[in-house]
Structures are given as structure tokens and as C-alpha cells.
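Quick note —
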Amino acid sequence: MKSIPTFFYILSCLALEGSSQLVPFLSKLRNPNPPELRPAQQSQAPFMNQPPNIALPGTDNSPSTSDPAPPNSGVLIFDVVGKSREINIFAGFTRDIAAIAARLESASANSTILAPLNAELYKLPRKPWEDAQDYARLGAQAYEGEGGTDRANANLKRFVEAHVVPESPWAEGRKVETLAGKLVWWEGREGGKKLIQPDGILVESIADKVANGEVWILKGVVNYAS
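Predicted structure written out below.
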């Protein structure tokens, strides 16, 4: 299989979180065939065996204590998305997709980033760069060779695009298509809580508000089924 060196870097980062979380993750990696999904998981598509060129900071589940940058400071999403340790896996994915990285460092393209917590990525039935349809068509070798890498990259791109809303500020109740084409909106709840609809995903916090948008931390994953 064509290897991608940054995969091993991700594993070294994940090791810092302790064996209690890493063991189930590694057990999935040892088995190239994804486990049969429960019915509730079937709608969730694709964690790419080796996504290329991901540069992640040290992984730590504790919330970042730094203050958000002022919205008009000239700081961009690209500058801050990796700042919160609790979402640094997803932050690495955004840097790995060239078109997404370019958008996040553009002052002329506003976005709301819906970044799942690291802990939520561990719960996925498959890695974000895997797709059950690929395994159904191609078997356990679906991500081997150059073609397999291309498929994995495309799947990862779709996953990230499903978590980028091309609008900021984003008004309550306003329905907007993500870059992956999924229609989403948010609704307020008591206590100032926000839910991303139609999936009912809780927004744990807003990590940053900068010149070209905001980074929202999610306790869940947007449905990214193809």
C-alpha cells in the first residue's frame, strides 16, 4: 500500500491521550475491513489510512485557555483553527485539503467552521477517509496503491467540506449549503445553546471569531454520507 508518513505522526499525537482511547482506535486500524455497522450508523459515510501532509499540534483534550481574536483584527481562520487542542485532529484535516486551506486563509471568503471534538471522531464507525461503498466495490484493498490514495483523499475532502458553512455571520434559522452540498441551519435553545440542524448536533462553544469567520466546536459530526 502506498504509505503516507503523516499517518504515523497522527498516531504519535493520539498516544498522548492515553491508552484507554487509543486501544479501540488502533484495533480498527489493524483490521482493514470496517466492522458491520449498526442500523443507526448506516447513513454515516466514512477515520483515510494516511491523510497526506497533516501537521497537527500536540493532542490534548483540555480546552484551550487563550482568548478569541477580535473579529476585525486581521487574524484569519487559518491562523486559529489549530489553536484549540480539543479539535486539532479536524484542524489538521482542514490544512490537508488545499482548497479548504486556501479558503481559510482568504480574507475575502467568510466561513463558519463546524469542528467536531477529537472525542467525536473516535466514535465514528469508520475513519473519515473511508467509505463503505468503496469496500463493497473493491474489498479490503480499496485504499491500496495510487488509486486507493486518490479515493481516500476524495473521501476526506468530502468529510471536511461537510463541516464548512460558506457564510459568516450565520444567522439563526438561515438554511445554507455546506461546501459538500448539505443543507444545514442552527436553532437557539435555552441557556444560549445552539443546535446544528437537521442532525441536532450541540455546539459546545465558539472557539474563535476572526476577520473571515468563526470556529464552532461540535459535540458530534455532520452527516457526510455520499
